């Protein structure tokens, strides 16, 4: 439980009970994978997910961008150098 989770709303005001807190995660690796290679997500959805992960103290984000071995996109500045490449 976190300090944020201890806040209670009563009669329109927020209250925090008197507590002693010792905070330590149960697992060192707390993460989530987002697979955008199979389903499109708008940037605002990804940002919301990252904020939610922070709220739940998740510390690893695996962003699965492609199912191929390479991620190919044109870079105009480098096109002349890549003649004949795939």
UniProtKB/TrEMBL annotation:
The organism's place on the tree of life at top rank: Eukaryota
Keyword line: Hydrolase
Coiled-coil annotated spans: none
Annotated GO biological process: carbohydrate metabolic process; glycosaminoglycan metabolic process
GO cellular component: membrane
InterPro entries membership: Beta_hexosaminidase_sua/sub, GH, Glyco_hydro_20_cat, Hex-like_dom2
EC number: 3.2.1.52
A Pfam family matched in the record: Glyco_hydro_20
Catalytic activity: Hydrolysis of terminal non-reducing N-acetyl-D-hexosamine residues in N-acetyl-beta-D-hexosaminides
One annotated GO molecular function: beta-N-acetylhexosaminidase activity
Stretches assigned to the Glycoside hydrolase family 20 catalytic domain: 27-77
Family, per entry: Belongs to the glycosyl hydrolase 20 family.
Protein name in the entry: beta-N-acetylhexosaminidase
Organism name: Symbiodinium pilosum (Dinoflagellate)
Lineage of producing organism: Eukaryota, Sar, Alveolata, Dinophyceae, Suessiales
């Amino acid at each position: 439980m976190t300090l944020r989770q201890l806040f209670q709303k009563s009669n329109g005001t927020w209250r925090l009970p008197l507590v002693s807190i010792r905070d330590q995660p149960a697992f060192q690796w707390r993460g989530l994978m987002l697979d955008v290679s199979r389903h499109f997500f708008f940037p605002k959805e990804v940002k919301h997910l990252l904020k939610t992960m922070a709220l739940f103290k998740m510390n690893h984000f695996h962003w699965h961008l492609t199912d191929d071995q390479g991620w190919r996109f044109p870079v105009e500045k480098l096109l002349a150098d890549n003649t004949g490449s795939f």
